[in-house]
Amino acid sequence: MDKEIFDFFTTLIEKASGIAYGPSKEYLVESKLLELGQTLGYKNLNELYLKVKNQLSPALLNSIIDALTINETYFFRDTHPFEALKNKILPELFQKRTDKKISIWSAASSTGQEPYSVAMLLLEYFSYYLSSYEIKIWATDISLSSLKKAKEGIYNQIEVNRGLPVYFLLKYFKQKGSVWEIDERIKKMVKFDFLNLLEVDRKVHEKFDIILCRYVLIYFANSTKKKVWKDIWKCLKSGGYLILGGTELAPLEFPDMERRHIGKAIVFYKKE
Prior knowledge:
By secondary structure, the chain is α/β, with parallel strands linked by helices. The protein folds into 2 domains: 3-68, Chemotaxis Receptor Methyltransferase Cher, domain 1; 80-270, Rossmann fold (3-Layer(aba) Sandwich), CATH 3.40.50.150. The protein contains 13 helices and 10 strands. It has helices at residues 3-17, 26-40, 45-54, 58-68, 80-96, 113-125, 127-130, 144-152, 157-161, 166-172, 184-189, 200-203, 222-234; strands spanning 101-106, 134-141, 154-156, 173-176, 179-182, 190-194, 208-212, 236-243, 257-262, 265-270. A hairpin with a 2-residue loop joins strand 9 and strand 10. The N and C termini lie far apart (52 Å).
C-alpha cells in the first residue's frame, strides 16, 4: 500500500473517530479499504483515494468509518464484569437509588451484544425491581452498520454460540431459519444511538449509574484516550461504577476514583 495513501486514510480515521492505526496495521487497512472500494464501485484503491481526497461527503466518511471500525464483541464477554453486575453492583444500586432510577450506558456497543447481555441479566435476576424502577440502558456506537444490526437484534449461529449460555438463548431468543432474533422484551429495554466518543463532552449531558466502556480506548492514541476517559468519567454519577475491558488500565486517575476488585473483575467506583 502506498505510504501516502496509508497516511491519508489513517489520519482521516483518527481525526474522525479517534482510532489510531500504526504502520503494522497497513495490511489490515488496505484490505478493508479495498473491500469498501469494490462495494462502492471503484476499480482500485487509488480511485477511492482520489474520490475521498477531492469529494469527501458525510456518507462516504461514514462508510470509511464503518469499514475501519473494529467491531469485535460477543454476549457476556469476559464473564467476570457481568458476575460483578449481578452479585454486587446492581443489588447495591437498587438499594442506594432512592429515586428508583438506574441508568446504564454501553459506550461502544458495536452490534449490541453487550447492552443486550445487561438487559438479559436484569430481566433474569432483577425482574422484581423492573416494575417499580425506571431503568434506562443507552447504547452508543460510531458505526452506523453496527447500530443497524444491533437494533434488528438478529444474530447468526456463530454469534449466539460466542459467550451466550444455552439457557439464555432458548429463553430470550427465537429461531428464524438459520438465525436467532432476540426477544422484543429485551429489545425494548435498550435504546441505540449514534455517538462519536470524541464528542462526549459536547453531546452527552446526563449522568449514569453504570458505564461500560470496554475495548475501545485501546484503539486510541494516548492523548485521545485520556481525553475520552476524562469526558466519560464526568458522565458517571457519584456512587456509580465504570467498567473497562479485562486487560485495560485507567489512562488517568482522579481524586474521586477508587479501583475496586469485585470477584475477578476490576471496576472503577466514583466516591460519594
